[in-house]
Amino acid sequence: METSSSSTQLTQPRPQHGAYILRELASDLPLSADGENADISITCVEVWSNNLYIGTSAAEIIHFVLIPPEPDDPSGKPVAIQASRLQPAYTQSINAGVQQILLLPKVNKACILCNNTLTFYSLPELTPAFPSTKPITCSWVGGVDLNAEDDDSGTDGVVVMICLKSRIRMVRVSEEGPRSLKTIEYGGCLDSVRRDNFSCAADSHSYVLLDVEHQQKIGLFPISSLDPQAGDVGGVPENIASELSSHAPSRSVSSASTHPYAEEQHGHVRSTSLGIFGNGGGPSSRTESPRPPSGQRHGFDVPESLQRSISPAPSRSPGRKHPERTSSLPRASTPSPEKPLPPPPDTHTVEQEAIPKTQEFVPLRPHIASPTPSEFLLTVGTTPSEPGVGMFVNLDGDISRGTIQFASYPDAIVVDGRGIDLMASMGPDMTAEEGYVLAAVHRQQEDRTEYGIEIQRWDVDPAEGEASKEWLDLTSVLNRTTNNGEQSIVPLGIRKIVEPNELVISEITEKLTVKRLDLVPEEVKSKSGNTQGKPAQEEADLDFTQQLSKLQTGIVLWAGDRIWWAVRSPLVIRLDARLEEAQSTPTGGGRIQPNRVLLEKTLGDIRGQEPRNEAEWLGLIYIRQKASLLLFIELVLRSSTNIIIFENEKRVTEQALIEGEVDPRVILSLVPILGQEVVQGPEGICVSGGLSTLVEQFLEENDPRFMPASVNGPFGDNLLHLVKRYLLFWKKRKGMASVTNDAYVFRTVDAALLHILLLLDRNSPKGPATAGSIRAELNELVDNEIECFDRAVELLEQFKRLYVLSRLYQRNSKASAKAANVLATWKRILEGEPDEGGEFVDGELELRKYLSRIRDQSMVEEYGAWLANRNPQLGVQVFADDHSRVKFEPTRAVALLREKAPGAVKEYLEYLVFGKKNTQYVNELISYYLDIVVSTLDNDPSSRETLLQTYETYRALHPPQPTYRQFITDNATDAEWWNSRLRLLQLLGSNQAGALSYDVPSILSRLEPYEQELVPEMIILNGRQGRHEEAIRLLTHGLGDYDTAINYCLLGGLSIFRPSGYVPQEEMPQRDEQAKLFGYLLHEFLQIEDLSQRIDRTAELLERFGGWFDVGAVLAKIPDDWSIDVFSGFLINSLRRLVRERNETAITKALSGAQNLQISAEIIDKGEEVGPTIEKVK
Length: 1178
What we know:
Blueprint: E1 20-26, E2 42-48, E3 51-56, E4 61-67, E5 79-86, E6 98-104, E7 109-114, E8 117-122, E9 127-128, E10 136-137, E11 140-142, E12 158-163, E13 168-173, E14 178-184, E15 191-195, E16 198-202, E17 206-211, E18 216-222, E19 238-239, H1 240-246, H2 347-354, E20 368-369, E21 375-380, E22 388-394, E23 399-406, E24 412-416, E25 436-445, E26 448-457, H3 462-467, E27 470-473, H4 475-478, E28 479-481, E29 487-489, E30 492-504, H5 506-512, E31 514-517, H6 522-528, H7 536-548, E32 550-559, E33 562-568, H8 571-583, H9 596-606, H10 614-640, H11 647-660, H12 664-668, E34 685-688, H13 689-701, H14 714-732, H15 742-760, H16 774-782, H17 789-798, H18 802-812, H19 815-830, H20 843-853, H21 857-870, H22 872-880, H23 890-900, H24 902-915, H25 920-939, H26 941-956, H27 964-970, H28 976-988, H29 1000-1007, H30 1015-1024, H31 1028-1039, H32 1042-1051, H33 1071-1085, H34 1091-1104, H35 1111-1117, H36 1128-1170
Antiparallel strand pairs: 1-33, 2-3, 3-4, 4-5, 6-7, 7-8, 8-9, 8-10, 11-12, 12-13, 13-14, 15-16, 16-17, 17-18, 18-19, 20-21, 21-22, 22-23, 24-25, 25-26, 26-27, 28-29, 30-32, 31-34, 32-33
């Protein structure tokens, strides 16, 4: 039969951090052959070597073969396949079913007690053994020496105790068959546990301690203090060997009483097969026990403390609900001088006890366990519903430790673990193991009764054990609805199997296995197309963790048709359950809402705890990391609600993070803004599976991108400073062997630390850093080696901290690129790019000093020329400084500037050409640039494609678009020919008088074969030759640079690459010339292919520069199908201009007429004043 995968899992108790956890072994078991399990229950269970043996109340044994689960099966439950179903032989049915399954692996035999009938079978298939041996009627079988469990030798067989009606037979079971060894006169035995020659046994009324070797017994305690037939139990040892010879019944009162389970009442027939069980007479029926010589101590030489006549009974004082655990119980006999008298009872208590209380006697089943090789645990009580007491006795029959208490009298008990004895020393190979008692009990809780397993320590102080009791509630599992609809409780059983079984706790694997935490967004992964398989290291980590997840357990529970393992809960499971409890609130719907108090308590409990093995070592690391991560999540969530957190809580969280040493990338992934700094390798971030699950759940429930991230609010106060200190802690760990993924971890640490300092420094006043300030920390960070160079550059660019960027370049750039990067950054600052820090004071002077300190001649050439262009006075100092490390002769300076620094050459050559009137350099410089450009275009076809592509790209830009000059400057490549071309354009377009002397026809002849590729050059040269119509056509259709075309018209064909700024009036063309150029431009705008562009550009031109156009000429050119709205602004302005011109003309005429009259009057007055002049004409 295969266990059902759909069967509901047993709900774990809450909280789940108890000493034991349950794992399902099998469910939906077919207890009945016909499938009807309503009235059939499991009575006993055994597991051995992947074989499951189940005894039922229907007097059947069902054998299952357990198939181990697959490694990837999360349930970890084996598959149970039914191998056989058999009905053991019995003489008479007493409705007890299968009472015991005793496996003897050493001899591959099984003893099965069914309806008080014992039969033998062979393992593992349960075939009948010893055909010549008839079934034996008895009440119990067992008593295998627990001290001999570690002895693997089974050559001599295994000695068991078979309890008959009036005696116990010691029988050796071997491969050949059972053989009687001796007889002990103790009848009606229901349970027995043996250690070497000492056995603690019980009948239906009391417990006794037997010396099976020397045939002695000591009465201990009655099982129930209400038992009227228990009599006085206890006292001096009794020699039961003498009773054996006289065949007298056992002194135990059980031989004279009615057995509560009626084993002897039904068909008790002694077997005489093989002659091993005598008929009660004759010496041949048993082996005589040897008697030691007189005077030698053997068996029970009773000390004075054991001279008692009555066994103690548990207190039943009505004044208290639960009797206290005590270190010893009072005895009725006179105490020995070695033991002090107990204190006199309180008068009030005596009066209460004197009140008669009538309680009906209900027989209690005895339970015996042996926690240590020298102790037995016995259960006593009054009634099944009242509390029971567990008493510990040693091999002398003395009380050996304090009693323990059960919520009710147990239905079954199991002891587990060797216990921790603080007084005893431990060997090097020994590990501390707590001792527990598991009892199947029930308890009353308010108005309902709960059923389950009570778990408590037996190896600690009574008060401590009482305080640490645990309860495993199984009420929901035990409830069963009968056919008539009524609720009933199915029996709950628990026992220790013959040999421990190994099983895998998948939770340990899930929590401790190193898994890949992938924080890269899906869209990024899909774009990159970088998919990684499962790394081999991950497979090795999984195998290692699975080995740690294998545990040994020997305890099984059963109820109804289900069976579970009771597994000692590993440390990591217990502690993680506490963290799970602290992770969310009962009303939170499973969302992460950490409870800080519980988390801090958990961390406090494990502080200083030393691991006992490798699993605990890894488990404690995991718990510290998860607890610290939850504390940090609690800070993040509270910060997201704008709560300012107390300093002590932040300090506790920071200390927890440092102790846990959580990967800083995990912490950063939870923080707004900083999550983008996380860098991971192809295998992701390797963390424990439990941490991975926690982080993934948090990121599913919360998106840090949408959390408040104001530096001046809770985000900055609660998180940034804490994370900064944690990152500094990790930065100090750089180079340690314990840190994995160093490259990715510290790249993230440096980037995040830089980002935090930039955020915190935003509100600092501009200017140089002061000691101890955030800005000083920022400078210190970039002044030292940093791992995330590219990201640091990006961040500093983003925050516009160019001066800090230059410091980064100075420390972290390669030596060959250091000066270039620093100078380029300073150049950007001086050219007007914002530097938010404002630290680059007197920048031009600093740059000039820097050039004098470096030995890189090329840098000095380039930036000296640039500085000369910007500030001629300082620029001249660069080339004329005799103290500079790079010195220049004037002729050499001219040659270098002409070759490598066109931007600076413009100013420097102007100084030579115009200042010194030396125009010979103009054509030479232009010819040099032309050689480079033309040679490249001839030899490299890709250069032509590049130029053509730039035109297409520029034309495809949506307005507002930069000028073509700005476009090619911003998108310049590092190719020499490209830079030379830019310099050529600059020189060709120069408007200085000295530069106008270059040979335009000669240059044009060289460029004409490349007029499709060198459009700007052709525009400039056409303008120089006065071919403005062609230049405007190229600007409009060749480049699509409409703004430059307009400037061309305004400036009268001056360079399209002239610097922006003031244009002298004398350089401006006449208005008629401008109007003519605008007419060409209007004609070209009307030829634009794209209709929307045509309309927009024409409308803009007419509206902005309508004063240069004749209305009639414009109306004649405008298509008739255009809406008047297109040029309505032009018409309105034109009409206004016409009216204004008419009015101005009228005023001018009037003024001219007045002026004419005035002059006429002046002439008349002057004539009159002078008078006439008479001239005679011959």
